[in-house]
Amino acid sequence: MVLVTNLWSSVSHPNNSIVGVDFYPDLTNFEVSRLDSLRYNITFQNASLNFPPTSIFPLDGLVDNVELSQNKDHIELYVTLTHPTNIDYKTIGKCPEQVKLYFDRTPLVNLLKNKHIVIDPSHGGSDYGSISPTSLLEKEVTLDLAYRSKELLEKYQAYVTLLRTSDKDPLPTRKKQNKITSINPDLMISLHTGNDVKGKVIGSRTGFFKTSSQGKKIANIMQKALYKKLIFPNGGIFKTNVSLLKTLPDKSIRVEILNITSRLEEGWMRDDGFRDIMVQGLFNGIKDIFNYSTT
Ligand SMILES: [Zn+2]
């Protein structure tokens, strides 16, 4: 009997989502079967878990959750996807012995390819935006997240225009509006942090232009994706009348990624690894919005 010692996931953008199972001391035989368009089952023979049955939630835009359970003398792995795709696998004999399952991310490239997204990293220069209890500046967070989002989305062949690319004062709203009108993007995201005066833990919030029902729909989709990925409370969606969202109300949202005045949320916002998680949350929301508009 071999032991399963670990279950993990990673992403190779834009090619594959990877789910890995580690074994000790040897690999074992396994069988891959497709249960339906969004679910795979992998059975590992003569194996047992050296930890309690568990689930992981990669939420990487393609792999939603992975469940591992013991069943007499074999182990069952269930993988649930958000889009139908193909699987490939590789076994690696090293320390630890590994089975790597590769899920093809082409469906995500198909959704994002040639889409034009405008991101406005709010504030900048002498306009700091909100300031956290330990002096983290909103303008720094929004610019960094915008750059990371651009880099990630471009791997999926999307076009991304940032309305601010350095620590300069923001363009006047009228100029931003003219730029958005001339680009006529598929989606516009005004990126902020929240700034609750009492410093409460709020989580992400997503705003839409008050009269746009389409804006409300896409705000809902983004908010759901952020809430799922960031594991903070759900700040919900809200109406706004800011003129930037009025430019293209059906394609515009305002994301307040986390609340910068909360000691807990600012701590996570400072973390380099968590910034990538926030960007993955934004990516998931953007991808889901395009998936919604093509179905
Ligand atoms: Zn702001």
From TrEMBL:
- What Gene Ontology biological process does one annotation of this record name? peptidoglycan catabolic process
**Transmembrane domains' residue ranges:** none
Q: Which GO terms describe its cellular component?
A: outer membrane-bounded periplasmic space
- Keywords of the record: Hydrolase
Q: From which organism does this entry originate? A: Natranaerobius trueperi
Q: Mind telling me what this protein is named?
A: MurNAc-LAA domain-containing protein
Q: Which SUPFAM superfamilies match?
A: Zn-dependent exopeptidases
Chain ranges of the MurNAc-LAA domain:
177-287
* InterPro entries linked: MurNAc-LAA_cat, N-acetylmuramoyl_amidase_3
The entry lists its GO molecular-function terms as: N-acetylmuramoyl-L-alanine amidase activity
